[in-house]
Amino acid sequence: MASAARTASRAFLRSTPATSFRPAARSTRFALPSQGFRASSRRGYASEAGQGKSSNGLLWAGIAAAGGAGAYFYLKGGDSSINSKDFVPSQKDYQAVYDEIARRLADETDYDDGSYGPVLIRLAWHASGTYDKETGTGGSNGATMRYAPESDHGANAGLKVARDWLEPTKAKFPWITYSDLWTLAGSCAVQELGGPTIPWRPGRQDRDVAACTPDGRLPDASKEHKHIRDIFYRMGFNDQEIVALIGCHALGRAHTDRSGYDGPWNFSPTVFTNEFFRLLVDEKWQQKKWNGPAQFTDKTTGTLMMLPADMALIKDKEFKKHVDRYAKDSDAFFKDFSDVYVKLLELGVPFTSKPEDRFVFKPSE
Ligand code: HEM
Question: Which of 11, 176, 186, 307 is the most buried (most CB within 10 A)?
Fold first, then answer.
């Protein structure tokens, strides 16, 4: 039954755009967008950016208080003599957080191309990608993007949508830190959008405004290989890892009111695939003629886009080697993406647990 739904889901997602583009043969092992069928209002292709639902601080504080009390009784069976601070969450508790995010992703499809998944993945990436291996500063430990100035850094424009979207989940599970929640949501969204398994472990502590990182730690989309290497080598990644990570641009879109760029990278922006690489290699890309920042558009339909930084991956010989491999081999991309995204989400975290203690979350049916 589940597999019939998945087959239907894939048929739906593939049939949406009537174009000559078709996802390349997909991994039979991984490419199962588990929510595509249920989330039938999710569009395979693109529309205008939705307005992110903005949250009201006081409202959330109220919900948090109520949710905290609810969770307290859920967690402790109503034994008010036990302080909720004593609560030690188990894998089952984190799975409950995962299930809640997965359920909301499936239910709340009235946004962008039909899913909050891509913007959650971007939040997890920007929270982690500030890491500097020399100084040990930045990384996913801290969730300092809650505060200005980090929340106002140009690269983080639009991520308030994701932070606000996670507030009701934080209110329901008040024991989880923001930094664990944001990264768990990133892991959940990749899995729920049909991507590989992303093992995850808790252990991040929230930090205050003093731990905000300086502007300029995240990549600038108008720049090319030297800049990309400077930024990602600083985090501790090599060329193959950089290419695998940027393959995440199979998902989501750029928004003129956020980065200034415009459009999706491919025709199924809510399904995790290796399409970003296949299109980079197979399609002809030309400079977009418009009154906006320099970006590229596909010659065939003029509706897709690539950033200058994306194009650098085929201009640079070392990067291109990996692009070619991932364009042809979806399984290799899924495996390498999983490894490198797990590494990304753990940057800068002083875990007391071991890598083998990571949880593998059960995806939704
Ligand atoms: C050179 C590296 C990168 C550059 C320059 C870059 C730049 C950008 C830009 C300009 C946007 C559009 C933002 C907007 O207007 O809403 C974007 C979106 C996105 N990026 Fe990247 N990015 C990079 C690497 C990555 C990595 C490593 C990941 C994940 C592991 C990632 C995941 C995403 C996702 C999922 C979106 C779509 C967000 C949405 O739909 O709201 N990016 N990126």
Answer: 186
